[in-house]
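Section 5: illustrative case.
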């Protein structure tokens, strides 16, 4: 399964050219994929052709199911007690939300992952019992809001006073999910709230990160051994370089915050790659919140979404450079979280 050593898998999904994309100028296609080499993507930029090598590149016509199949082993491993992060990265309009949330007719990774988890749990029910808990937050302008609470309560991240270094988010709504039907309702609430809060805060969802966290607490029916797996599904804010568009005031502050937090994510990954002893998790709310799931012992997949159109080629190049930087990261073998005396907040 692992094509490369280390456990950050970098996948690239090229958005198909949709009918609505064709109505503007700059619609020439400058990105090509090679059916004979599933790990290469080629971009024509300033008259030169540049090849990027990643773990896997999806053809523009790849289905939601094909994309899910690629990350399914990561999802499954959270049943065995691994902590997993899956990020969708890319400029606004490149298909991040389509990949993670999807549409009613064609759901994305979030729904498929939960469906898969429930079916795995059902298969193991003679040996193990599991509880599945879900929470969802939005991070906008470095402010954390609960997407499962009606009024979008602001939340803080606190260090547990027990000295274990574990974080917790007081007041975060954590819902135990019993079955798949229930989850559809929860996901719909989070989606609706992301739009509502966005409108109230005068921004749109492309400028916030949306995080769905699923914790899977397992107990072996015979030995009593416990596992604590965690799956973090992140629809990142648009990676476009907004500050170049003459933003001022609030808009500039917002742009700086988005870019800073994406930069912080890149820095954390770089620090992990360099095996640095200090990993700057605290430099953004997002990396701080994810610090128990990012890095040593954990599994990460980055889905880099790109547009194939000429008018987006600058952003496409930036996204692929980011992808290539992340791709070289090696974290050593992943470790299961079994019988930890300090359970993560959501499991205990
Ligand atoms: P982002 O979240 O990155 O801003 P979206 O996911 O909202 O982008 O995608 C922009 C539009 O393109 C949406 O209408 C979405 O449904 C559509 N879209 C994106 N990727 C695909 C795809 N692979 N197939 C069909 N439609 C897509
Ligand atoms: Mg989006």
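Designed sequence:
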């Amino acid at each position: 399964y692992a094509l490369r050593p280390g456990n950050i898998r970098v996948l690239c999904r090229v958005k198909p050219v949709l009918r609505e994309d064709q109505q503007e100028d700059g619609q020439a296609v400058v990105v090509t994929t090679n059916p004979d080499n599933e790990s290469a993507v080629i971009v024509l930029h300033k008259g030169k052709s540049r090849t990027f090598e990643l773990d896997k590149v999806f053809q523009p016509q790849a289905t939601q199911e094909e994309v899910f199949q690629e990350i399914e082993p990561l999802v499954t491993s959270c049943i065995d007690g691994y902590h997993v992060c899956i990020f969708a990265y890319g400029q606004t309009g490149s298909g991040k939300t389509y990949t993670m949330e999807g549409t009613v007719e064609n759901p994305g990774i979030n729904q498929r992952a939960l469906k898969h988890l429930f079916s795995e749990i059902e298969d193991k029910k003679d040996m193990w019992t599991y509880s599945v808990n879900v929470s969802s937050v939005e991070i906008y302008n470095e402010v954390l809001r609960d997407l499962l609470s009606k009024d979008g309560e602001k939340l803080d991240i606190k260090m547990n006073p027990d000295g274990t270094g574990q974080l917790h988010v007081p007041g975060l709504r954590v819902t135990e999910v019993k079955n798949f039907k229930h989850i559809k309702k929860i996901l719909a609430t989070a989606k609706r709230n992301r739009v509502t809060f966005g409108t109230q805060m005068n921004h749109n969802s492309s400028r916030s990160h949306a995080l769905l966290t699923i914790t899977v607490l397992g107990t072996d029916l015979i030995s009593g051994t416990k596992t604590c797996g965690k799956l973090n599904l992140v629809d990142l804010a648009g990676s476009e370089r907004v500050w170049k568009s003459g933003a001022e005031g609030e808009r500039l502050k917002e742009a700086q915050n988005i870019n800073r937090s994406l930069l912080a994510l890149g820095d954390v990954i770089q620090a992990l790659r360099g095996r640095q002893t200090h990993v700057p998790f605290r430099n953004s709310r997002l990396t701080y919140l994810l610090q128990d799931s990012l890095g040593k012992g954990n599994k990460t997949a980055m889905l880099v979404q790109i547009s194939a159109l000429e008018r987006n080629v600058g952003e496409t190049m930036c996204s692929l450079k980011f992808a290539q930087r992340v791709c070289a990261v090696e974290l050593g073998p992943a470790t299961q979280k079994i019988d930890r005396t300090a359970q993560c907040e959501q499991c205990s």
